[in-house]
Amino acid sequence: YLHVALLFWQQVILCHCTLDDLRVDGRSCEDYRYVEVETDVVSNTSGSARVKLGHTDILVGIKAEIGRPKLDRPNKGCLEFFVDCSANATPEFEGRGGEELGTEIANALYRVYDNERSVDLKSLCITPMEHCWILYTDVLLLQCDGNLFDAISLAIKAALLTPSKIPKVQMMEDEEGTTEIELSDDPFDCVRLNTENVPCIVTLCKIGQRHVVDATLQEKACSVASLLVSVTSKGTITCVRKIGGGSLDPESIYEMIETGKRVGKALHAPLQDILNKEESLGKSREKVGFIG
Amino acid sequence: MPVDTKRLRGPEESQSPWLFVEQEQQSPPDEREDGRRKGQVDVRPIFARCGLVSQAKGSAYIESGKTKVICSVYGPRETERKDETDMKFGRLVCTFRFAPFSCAKRCGWIQSTQEKDLSMALLGSLHPGLCLHRYPRSQIDVSVLVLENDGSALAHAVTCASLALADAGIEMYDLVLGCSLRQEGSDYLLDPTFAEETQEPATESTENRGGMMVALLPSLNQVSGLLCSGDLEQQPLVEAVAACIEGCQRIYSVAQRCLLTAVKKKNPPPDG
Amino acid sequence: MTMTSLQETDVLSSVQPITVHVITIGRLASEACAVNMSPWKVCVPGERLCSTEVCKAGSGTYIRHSFIFASLAGYVVKKNEGEELPVISVARETEAQLLPDVNAIVTCKVTSINSRFAKVHILYVGSTPLKNKFRGTIRKEDVRATEKDKVEIYKCFRPGDIVLAKVISLGDVQSNYLLTTAENELGVVVAHSEAGVQMVPISWCEMQCPRTHAKEFRKVARVQPEYLMP
């Protein structure tokens, strides 16, 4: 997908510069591009966020609905992911073109987020074996400029961290035996998810002898393989995955894991600050929205 | 939701009775069931054979403990869809499937998301090992079927697929071998069985739990596939990767011997 | 997208840089066998055969960091060719992996024609049959060498004809293999007349049915006399 063809000499120059810790746009190998995060952009959802990482634009909406828990996890809720690569992003995604990429990203997200350690799934349970909250997380790719996983993970974390509007419910059994859902009367009485351990994904691309964080499409075209590392705020690594069609040296893998852990751990604090600031502004926050 | 209209299925709501049995909370045993050691590179003995499926270009079967995996390779044949890279390199298409009776819980015949995910991981692991630039405009189909899943299905699928590719005569830089591992606390269990993979933790707060699969090109010492999920600190993770790499090296001699037997059986030695 | 290494010597190679590790004793012994060996030595892909100073690389092998490695599972065959270095290759007797390559002579069967080109299925490359058929196209201007613009496909090929052609290019994303018959030795070898009988060639542009004596136009190949059946 998203082929950017670089001439041979361009690739060589890019690799040589990376050796000296200098990238095309002046960043160092471990720097991210300018990130903009905004939450609560879509009012119909339980949580939403929009992330702009360079020219990559991601919109995430989370809707919470009541459903049946999975049979092998009867007292836990679950997350369902769907990634839509819309034709807005590039014309290659028209029709079913983006489906493969979307499934690949969704499968990776399941592996990273849909487990007990990342999100406290037990708190999403209402009645064991009968009802639970299912968080339908829909990701929209509005613009692609490389490094989709990082942007998507930032957006998901931001969407989960905002005061999610998951109301408190109680299941009442009436005389005939049918269960009824009773919502609490207070509209602000919400279940707030414990999102301490939600990880952030860092994608490291191997270019020549070095690896870079937050690769643009051009840099991606020069790299053989990338390593996806998802790191929590405590520094534990929840998922490591090699993507791409090349192979990696074991030594490179160890180095990339170390860099990934360092960069990932450092991502959480600024994100939390931004979101705390947004929350403290409350209603008076200026919503930038989609234009501007 | 894709609906399977070709097969007569049972009622929508069918479930296995084992789900309703109260699972007693067993603490993980100190010794591994089959006598292998914790924290040591102990792989289950492997039986491998090539050339089973007569209609396929190449095929292989691997049995390790109770895990049984079979793989067939077809190709190189003409690609249906083409894009720019296909003009210079061949395309590799991998399909990973669990047979419905392979796991404790019955899987449907339609590929689930987990199977699609494992197919992508298999593709990523095999891709660096093949000389695809020698097959422009062609497509190589690899189809792996897990007949019985007793742990580390993906790792054995990788090994099986690379044996089948070598049996099919597809040019490769090196064999690709897979090994998986389960980390529990401070010990690791190499080549885990299904029970060890799905073991519930002893206490809620057990640190360092996770599962990992590493695919290695042994002669070139390059890692072509890495898939890990869990909750691990950096140091145990790095040690686990090293243990998997060593596990792969142990399997190499078995894979080599299997291929050599297959070559001698299939082809007579050339004259002169 | 292949990656280029950064060392000066390897800039043009399309293979990634690796660290060569010390090989185990077992493999050293087999390597010693490979160098002064009987042809029955079997190898697996990735096995190091010898260095490029001792032999040249043949089919079924690849070169990495001035060593020759096997890329197929088969028998190691070393051929001495006079004064040059011997050529080491890996042979698998059954079904060679031939793909139609540029300038290869292929045997194909015509599936459909229209006024601009003929579509064919490539069945044999040289004398090796292909297990899977590949599609090819013979354009109007590649049918013969002279008077290219006055060619009528209907008078050169018909569906069902067996044609000897040469591959000019692998084509691009939209098209199939591009073939040409613009030589005397290329063209229709076997054709059936409208009566269903195999026709006999009478000139470079006509064939005759032995039963009805009707002549039909084809672009006939001049097959060498020794290949014609009596």
UniProtKB/TrEMBL annotation, chain A:
Residues of the Exoribonuclease phosphorolytic domain: 32-162, 197-262
GO MF, one example: mRNA 3'-UTR AU-rich region binding
Assigned keywords, A-Z: Acetylation, Cytoplasm, Exosome, Nucleus, RNA-binding, rRNA processing, Signal
Cellular component terms per the entry's GO annotation: cytoplasmic exosome (RNase complex); nuclear exosome (RNase complex); nucleolus
Signal peptide (UniProt feature, chain positions): 1-17
Source organism: Erpetoichthys calabaricus (Rope fish)
Gene from which this protein is expressed: EXOSC7
InterPro entries: ExoRNase_PH_dom1 (IPR001247), ExoRNase_PH_dom2 (IPR015847), ExoRNase_PH_dom2_sf (IPR036345), Exosome_comp_Rrp42_subfam (IPR050590), PNPase/RNase_PH_dom_sf (IPR027408), Ribosomal_Su5_D2-typ_SF (IPR020568)
Subcellular location as annotated: Cytoplasm; Nucleus, Nucleolus
Subcellular location, principal: cytoplasm
Designated name of the protein: Exosome component 7
Subunit and partners: Component of the RNA exosome core complex (Exo-9), composed of EXOSC1, EXOSC2, EXOSC3, EXOSC4, EXOSC5, EXOSC6, EXOSC7, EXOSC8 and EXOSC9; within the complex interacts with EXOSC2 and EXOSC4. The catalytically inactive RNA exosome core complex (Exo-9) associates with the catalytic subunit EXOSC10/RRP6. Exo-9 may associate with DIS3 to form the nucleolar exosome complex, or DIS3L to form the cytoplasmic exosome complex. Exo-9 is formed by a hexameric base ring consisting of the heterodimers EXOSC4-EXOSC9, EXOSC5-EXOSC8 and EXOSC6-EXOSC7, and a cap ring consisting of EXOSC1, EXOSC2 and EXOSC3.
Keyword Secreted: no
GO biological process: exonucleolytic trimming to generate mature 3'-end of 5.8S rRNA from tricistronic rRNA transcript (SSU-rRNA, 5.8S rRNA, LSU-rRNA); nuclear mRNA surveillance; nuclear polyadenylation-dependent rRNA catabolic process; rRNA catabolic process; TRAMP-dependent tRNA surveillance pathway; U1 snRNA 3'-end processing; U4 snRNA 3'-end processing; U5 snRNA 3'-end processing
Family membership: Belongs to the RNase PH family.
CDD domains, per the entry: RNase_PH_RRP42 (cd11367)
UniProtKB/TrEMBL annotation, chain B:
A Gene Ontology BP annotation from the UniProt entry: nuclear mRNA surveillance
Domain Exoribonuclease phosphorolytic residues, every copy: 43-171
UniProt biased composition (Polar residues): 13-28
Location of the region described as Disordered in the Swiss-Prot/TrEMBL record: 1-38
Record keywords: Cytoplasm, Exosome, Nucleus, RNA-binding, rRNA processing
Signal peptide (from-to): none
GO molecular-function terms, A-Z: RNA binding
GO cellular component: cytoplasmic exosome (RNase complex); nuclear exosome (RNase complex); nucleolus
Cellular localisation: Cytoplasm; Nucleus, Nucleolus
Biased composition (Basic and acidic residues): 1-12, 29-38
Pfam families: RNase_PH
Family: Belongs to the RNase PH family.
Subunit text: Component of the RNA exosome complex.
Record's function text: Non-catalytic component of the RNA exosome complex which has 3'->5' exoribonuclease activity and participates in a multitude of cellular RNA processing and degradation events.
PANTHER family xref list: EXOSOME COMPLEX COMPONENT, EXOSOME COMPLEX COMPONENT MTR3
Official protein name in the record: Exosome complex component MTR3
Organism of this sequence: Erpetoichthys calabaricus (Rope fish)
Upper taxonomic lineage: Eukaryota, Metazoa, Chordata, Craniata, Vertebrata
UniProtKB/TrEMBL annotation, chain C:
Start and end residues of each Exosome complex component CSL4 C-terminal domain: 130-170
Any Gene Ontology biological process: rRNA processing
KW Hydrolase (keyword) present: no
Pfam families: ECR1_N, EXOSC1
GO molecular function, one term: RNA binding
Domain of life: Eukaryota
Location of the Exosome complex component N-terminal domain: 42-78
Main location: cytoplasm
SUPFAM superfamilies recorded: Nucleic acid-binding proteins, Ribosomal L27 protein-like
GO cellular component: cytoplasm; nuclear exosome (RNase complex); nucleolus
Location in or out of the cell: Cytoplasm; Nucleus, Nucleolus
Keywords (A to Z) from UniProt: Cytoplasm, Exosome, Nucleus, Phosphoprotein, RNA-binding, rRNA processing
Record note on quaternary structure: Component of the RNA exosome core complex (Exo-9), composed of EXOSC1, EXOSC2, EXOSC3, EXOSC4, EXOSC5, EXOSC6, EXOSC7, EXOSC8 and EXOSC9; within the complex interacts with EXOSC6. The catalytically inactive RNA exosome core complex (Exo-9) associates with the catalytic subunit EXOSC10/RRP6. Exo-9 may associate with DIS3 to form the nucleolar exosome complex, or DIS3L to form the cytoplasmic exosome complex. Exo-9 is formed by a hexameric base ring consisting of the heterodimers EXOSC4-EXOSC9, EXOSC5-EXOSC8 and EXOSC6-EXOSC7, and a cap ring consisting of EXOSC1, EXOSC2 and EXOSC3.
PANTHER family in the cross-refs: 3'-5' EXORIBONUCLEASE CSL4-RELATED, EXOSOME COMPLEX COMPONENT CSL4
Family: Belongs to the CSL4 family.
Protein name, entry field: Exosome complex component CSL4
Species this chain originates from: Erpetoichthys calabaricus (Rope fish)
Gene: EXOSC1
